[in-house]
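dumping these here so i dont lose them again. two proteins, back to back, each one seq then structure tokens. dont judge the mess
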Amino acid sequence: MAGEVDNFADIFDNIGLNDTSRLNNPSNSASLGFIKELQAPFFPREPARGPTFLDTEACLCQREFRPDNPRELWWRCIGDRTQNGTATVSREKILRTSGKWFEPSHDDDVSSNDVLGLPLYDASNPPARDRASQWNNETSELVPGIDKLSVWDRACTGENRTSFSTSFYRAVAQTNADEAPVDAAPCWRPGAVPLQLQGVSDWMDNGCKLGFQCVNNTVNSLPQFCPPFALCQMARLGGRACELDGKNIGMGPFEPVVCQRGYYCPTGGRETIKCPKGTYCQPGAATPTPCAVGSLCPAGSSSEKFLIPVGVLILVDILLIIGIILLRFRDGLANSMHGHQSKIPKQKQNITVGNLARALTRRQPYKRLSDDHEAGDHEMRAMNAMTGPRRDIWAGFQGALDRPPQAYKDDETLSPEIQAFVNSMRKATDASNIGLSFGYENLAFQPKSGDKFILQNITGCIRAGSLTAVMGGSGAGKSTFVNVLMGKTQYTHGSVRVNGVPGKLKRYKKLIGYVPQDDVVLPELTVYENIMHSARVRLPPTWKDKDIKNHVEAVIDCLELSHVSNSLVGSVGKPVISGGQRKRVSIGMELAAAPMAIFLDEPTSGLDATSASSIMRTLKAIARLGMTVITIIHQPRMEIFEMLDDLLLLGNGQQLYEGPEDGVRPFFEKMGFSFPQHANFGDVVTDIITGNGRPYKKSGDISKEALIANWAASRAHLQGGIGTPDSSRPGTPDSGTPTTVSEGSTLHVPGENNKSKKRLSNISVISKLEGMGSHNTSINRLLKKRGASRLKQFRLCLSRAMLQQYRSLSSLWFELGLALLAGFLLGIAKSSKSGILFAGTYHAPYEIISTASDFKSAPELALLTAIAIGLVAAAPGVKVFSEEMLLHRREAEAGHSRLAYFMAKSVSVVPRMTLACLHFTMPLLLLSSPIIPWGIAFLTNLDYFYCIFGLASAISMVVKREDAPLFATMIALITGILSGAAPPLSKVKGWKMEWLWRSSPGVWLAEIYFGQLVSPLAYLYDVDLAARATGFTLVRLWLNLGVLLGIGTIYRILAFVGLFAGKKLRV
């Protein structure tokens, strides 16, 4: 019970167990015999007469004659009334002289006999407590002092304790009435025998244990354990203390009672004080625990409600919403300004080469095209224009098609926009010739895991400034050939030269652009932002930002994208711009890097005929300006086919033809193939080289093997001096364009057939580039200064990643909402505990009165937290990289720093993780109210978010994009289960499998939670026993946080390795 006991018999009445028949035997003395042998200070062992009371130390004080002066009545207080005599001192003498003696406060007004006839409760002449005496056996008299007294008698105070005395008086009355002395019983349960918990020495040295009420315990009423009633036993088995009217009680007057929750019991256990405002007191509190600043803790609290995190969360969300609104307003204002600028008369604008195209083409902000607009070639004209811009005013790169070859050398023959692009290219390449030539001889490629050659006997060259198409059927080796020239695939036989110089092709990757078949661009960025990022990363670091912007604007102008430059690109599933425009953006990302050669994989795939022709005219114009363009193309329409300068036809990994486009028809006609009138020559050629040329040759062998043999024979014939190449094409000596190929390579003739190993000599149409050595030195110098530093790339990639998240706010809101819901549901699930998430075994010697231990609630909270965070963070963690793997590979192959990209993406999600963690942790701690400090809980959860994001990133590197979210969620669930809650870590140690659990971040999270929830209760419970039972360590907070951080970092290291090997590892 809280406070002192006024009437112990009332407990029986309140509980409904007032049947004392077990004590009411026929002989009262027999029924009380067992009490006489126990510590029972309320039990009247001898008939009482005269004023009597029990003092504060449960000593029996009564008026008795002095042993050395029978005429005087003094007060004698006796402590241990169960003491017996010794061999030298008789019991009678002990009973007559023992105890602590006090003089009365004043002389009695009546005779001694009248005093002994007064009621027991008479307090008219109390003891003079400042004058204590003891019996001196040597002098046989009472002498001042207490040094010779026993420990029990020495403790007597002579101060009446009303509650003790009242119980004693009732017991006397019950005994006199020959009834069971209920108030004197040591246990409430009838017939129960108590078990002493503390001896005299332990009590004198330690007193009541911290966290307990020992209101009735003294050296003469030591703590005892009493067998509980059934209801109390059920309560204890359920983890609750025995209660009566909402207050904790013991099963006897001297049984210690754990301090009530909402109250604290200071040292000594004599007081039970309500927890003051601003603090909280859990069950067994010895001192109130101060609440954190800003927490809600009214008087009598057993836990604290964190309010500052709630305010922080609300403030962060409000600021986030306001910031988004302001940014949206700024974007809308910027779009309005662009729309207003388009209405300003041209003569009032500051017309420069860099803004000429925008002045002619930019209109109102670009909006998404409806489905009925997809059929036309709308990307070729401004949105509000009734017709396309006049060709003589502006036609993008295609304006170069109306000029003769090499016209880019004459500044006056090109439009200002094209000339601006050419000037930027010259500045980037430090040369007047902005193209690369490729020569290859006996080129072959054989995979390490196979015996079959994918490429073999490929000899020839690709001229600088030419538009060359690589054609062939499926499995012909087109992609492998292009990958070899770009340095992506290392050839196994033969040689390749760039501008006549042999060497590793990978070193030229910064001078080569590659446009994949799929338009690999970021949908969250605008046209301008996609191209600008590529330029800033890949252009020389010496370029000023103004120069980079001018170059990008020139590229956009020449690609006729000015009117959509501020439009988002959109995804394939949710397009914002048309397919043709997406392809131009993809090309623009490469042109922004000022490459000297550009490779394209089926650039017309997926486009309508008009858009495909537009793209090919643009590529033709780019080649006309001097850049080398190599493209894989499949079944081009007639118009596109005739745009090509050169063709390389492949079949079964070998050459079927290499030469000018206009020479392919005569070549096959000599083999007996006929080209129908008005037929699409591209389709005819495709049918022939795929072995389906029977409609064009009625008899004879049409197989690819026959075509290979025929080309080998034709090449040998040309080697003998027959055949005249077309000298009007760019790259031939007569055209004025120098050809930069190596010795031993040919332009239109392969160097060998399948069986010959003889090297062909040069034919006269291939001339060497004058000053090849100096030009090569210039390229080496150019390679060294291309590309931004890693630090700058990190800043650029970080800025881009943050912009992507801003443009994908719906996913951010969904993620935060999911985190908030998970924290709310988990908090609701644990709210019934009222913050009491651990109950252990009390310290000895009170362990026998312990309630049922609860070692599981703390690890279970950690388990559920780990699972919830895994469910919240796994899928977003996958999206960090999985959505951009194709783009990253494209950028990495172009020379972008993988480390800068990876670090930027990892850092960019830290704010996202922090916000998600805040939305998860706030409702969880608000509703479950654990005693773990909020800051530590938040930091721990954030560490675990960091681990799950890292784990998901690593998984996204090796699992297919469509499968990665589910796979990551499953793995995150497994790591949560391996937290050591179930099965307990202690059992796992017995299996010798602790290393597996320790490899999971979940067990370190659980150890932090367990330690923080259990360690503060070490004064009350045997927490070391709990630690051994669960297998956790209690005092490794910062080590555990560091390990979590380390595991998350290791996951990221594995993810970074996956950037290199992930393509091969993906399942």
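---- next one ----
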Amino acid sequence: MLPYTVNFKVSARTLTGALHAHNKAAVDWGWQGLIAYGCHSLVVVIDSSTAQTLQVLEKHKADVVKVKWARENYHHNIGSPYSLRLASADVNGKIIVWDVAAGVAQCEIQEHAKPIQDVQWLWNQDASRDLLLAIHPPNYIVLWNADTGTKLWKKSYADNILSFSFDPFDPSHLTLLTSEGIVFISDFSPAKPPSGPGKKVYISSPHSSPAHNKLATATGAKKALNKVKILITQEKPSAEFITLNDCLQLAYLPSKRNHMLLLYPREILILDLEVNQTVGVIAIERTGVPFLQVIPCFQRDGLFCLHENGCITLRVRRSYNSIFTTSNEEPDPDPVQELTYDLRSQCDAIRVTKTVRPFCMVCCPVNENAAALIVSDGRVMIWELKSAVCNRNSRNSSSGVSPLYSPVSFCGIPVGVLQNKLPDLSLDNMIGQSAIAGEEQPKGSVLQEVHLKFLLTGLLSGLPSPQFAVRMCPPLTTKNIRMYQPLLAVGTSNGSVLVYHLTSGLLHKELSVHSCEVKGIEWTSLTGFLSFATSTPNNMGLVRNELQLVDLPTGRSIAFRGERGNDEPPIEMIKVSHLKQYLAVVFKDKPLELWDVRTCTILREMSKNFPVITALEWSPSHNLKSLRKKQLATREAMARQTVVSDTELSIVESSVISLLQEAESKSELSQNISAREHFVFTDNDGQVYHLTVEGNSVKDSARIPPDGSMGSITCIAWKGDTLVLGDVDGNLNFWDLKGRVSRGIPTHRSWVRKIRFAPGKGNQKLIAMYNDGAEVWDTKEVQMVSSLRSGRNVTFRILDVDWCTSDKVILASDDGCIRVLEMSMKSTCFRMDEQELTEPVWCPYLLVPRASLALKAFLLHQPWNGEYSLDISHVDYPENEEIKNLLQEQLNSLSNDIKKLLLDPEFTLLQRCLLVSRVVTDKKDISLHSPENELQIISTPYLTSYEEELLPYYEVLARIERCLALQATVGSSCLVLSPLYELSGNFGFTLLRLYGDESELHFWTVAAHYLHSLSQEKSASVPATTETAPRDQVTNPLDICYDILCENAYFQKFQLERVNLQEVKRSTYDHTRKCTDQLLLLGQTDRAVQLLLETSADNQHYYCDSLKACLVTTVTSSGPSQSTIKLVATNMIANGKLAEGVQLLCLIDKAADACRYLQTYGEWNRAAWLAKVRLNSEECADVLKRWVDHLCSPQVNQKSKALLVLLSLGCFSSVAETLHSMRYFDRAALFVEACLKYGAIDLSEDTDILC
């Protein structure tokens, strides 16, 4: 027979509640899949998938105002393992950097004693991942080394800084939102502070525009946009203009370069920073709900918007070629291409009250398919975006909204209709990019139209606002071990009782019991409790008392006192006897009532001259055992008289005995047994009364005169032979009843509000609660064990206390939290891997580094298996068996959809890489090996058997390289791929999503796209070399969010669309000039000439523009003219006219020379842009390769970006070499394998360097 086990482990934890107003913006969703938010001075970390609290960090002494997860966009291995790092800042200016898994503070930073306005981790270079940029009021930005707390540099500005935003396409560009305008910084660097004050511009609010009054009557944002012209100026607006006072947010658009949004309560403005002009506006109608926050998406040009009613909406940019008007609207005589964002989905709103309102929203950065809403009452609502295929014929064609189509690819690789895929994995797997960028659908397309909807997939409720009354259920004993659950009942100010399961920290039940504040709770059994509440007193001081008996399994609640309770003095306390037989109800100005708990009947209502009770406690002694012995003897005698045979006698005796034992084990008294119990109470004079209760009989046993050293007694606790009394002056009096001695201890802590003994036989620990804190005492030694006092180091005030277990206490505090602490009452954090969770959580960060890397390797590649498996038991893991079990637990916690994908034999290596990078987090690629299954890449036995049973993938690379070296000596014809190797195309895609791996996600996205493009070219019999860029494709191009990495033709098309939009929205000569410059660079000379001729005669540039128009029109390709123009351009560049000289070179088709000049003068991004739009593939590749060399230089150190550029060029061998030089051996091994599968790398003497 297996031993019976029950999980009653209770760890130290904190139950959080409503948030403070300072916590409004303190929330972040990390790439690791975890959400962190501030709750008063605490930082709460929850799992986004299961909505379980994983960690509560407590070290701040003030309210938290910002939290920010560290970016995981760097290479990880054993030397640089994954860690959960989080930065939090408070209103006192302190920044703490946490190791969240261990629950310890790694670094504390303090510059000033004012609230931190904003913090951000730097992500733009490979040298260091410890840099943290912070705004210290009023006008300082400080760069910190978050590992050591060292201040690297500090820079001040003229205006108060509110927030900042980095350009996601150019990390040297930083934008500050100030109290008066915007400051653009173009030379941000970790090495030194910005050199100047930056470019300061002013932005007029849309409310200051005369057109704003017409927004309500306009049919949409399209007509309003034509009226809102200049918003960015370098001149300070006049006093009658409203400036940035009501601007809520500033953010760059990560989906396309040089675009920024400004959020106002009723408008979202999209700005094109190249022309400093509004190119899109989302206006809310007069009856609409104002905006609170907006989060722009990266994968698709969409916006997650939070409204004041708590509704989250998703708006997606409409395709240019899909703009049409409704049937009821007159066609616009002058149709305009503009950035229009259509409402695609919205979630339900919340009920907003004075105390309940939406605070903030965060979006999943990995998949961008979920948003979490933080509500002021402590709720966290996780809304997940789902796609549903719809019938095209059922679409409402008059809605004015273009259709959305599902993408043709999944995890970077086109898939068939019947192939397994997870369409809701991420936003780019839900919506095809053609619906965003305006691409025409190909003929015979099998794309399916989809609709989007929000589903509530996670809800975490917090505690309501204080006051609290807490009571732990009866303690664990050997008799109740089979049914015991560590339940905590919490009475709240709104009349409800919350029951928490303290093993998991989750809400077990919420019961609406009372109509007013709950004052106290007493458990009557493991499954029931009594609670009382009192209403607000009337003019006579009388209240309505509510005393309810609640059955927990059913939730049934009955009025324990029946019709009693109206217009009487308030109940001050209730006390249930030790055997749960009797209940004492103490009133303020009314005699005591004694009740039978089992029958809900009153036993005795004391006379009016009964003493006024100030404290009461039941004795733990009783006569139940002697009564049961007598009853058992009586029943045995009766059985002997009625039974003849000895056999029947023994059967009856055994049945009677077992029946009695069963009743005793459940601590239930039969109706005919009423044990005698005792209680003591004190009156106003301090006299102690001892009364005995047995059935209906109440007897006055003894009276003890008051102790002269004690004041008015406020509370009593009794356990064993020890009785403890506390008074209004803070004195504790310890009575040893057996030794008949007492000892008084003055604590000098004022009023003793409550004292309770700890559970457990022989455990004589006691907790005492005061107005300013609490103390734990050892009554055996009569000495204090620990103390907690509200003040500088403890920012909260204690409202109620109780014991959770024999060595843990419960503290309810006025910050809305309930803390389960060790007996020392030190507010310490806990290790995440020590928590008991009801649902398994996928979080490989909690594993030791080697195990986490091994898990990722196991998910990525199993070359020793003929088919993919999620059972790790057959692998010989060199560590202990416990680690192996943890790995299997993580595998078991994966969702069924993910498991189905991973087990699909058609799911390729590239797809697995991308899935793991998204869904888990960024543990870099490794591989497993078992000694009986050797890596089978080629049919000949080039690889020796492994000595290790588990190798990180960077060690496997060496084996692969030796294999390639041996193969090169034999000849490429010997290469025969194993069945699994044949399927290695997309396997890694999906796994990287599992790990939330930012850098690898981008790498494998670009790699999968161009490797697949190469295979399509080869299948179409198009010759291609390994070191030339693949043929530009626009049928299924790389997403435009990758900007310069896209195919040239698609990039050119996007830039032409953009300049056309800029041209339509131009309103001043400066805008026209910028559009002209862009058109000339793009080679659109005819349209540029038209704009040049539009210059009015009274403009000071009229003559120059006219001459320039003539020059553009008459440029010929003759030698002398080309030489002259080139000479002039060179001179202009030498004399500081770089932009003008580049224009002249482009006029004579010398764009390659122009790119070289731009690179010489440090304009690397501009040179890459010009090469993409003007040069052919070979010339463009030369320019970009020089850029790669620059990115790899020690001064820049952006090799990760250089890898992406090389991938876009199709330089796959160079990518492998660079990965090897960067010591990214794991990624290099997987990449080489994928290239071999696609035929992107031919094994020859030229590629021996990879070996």
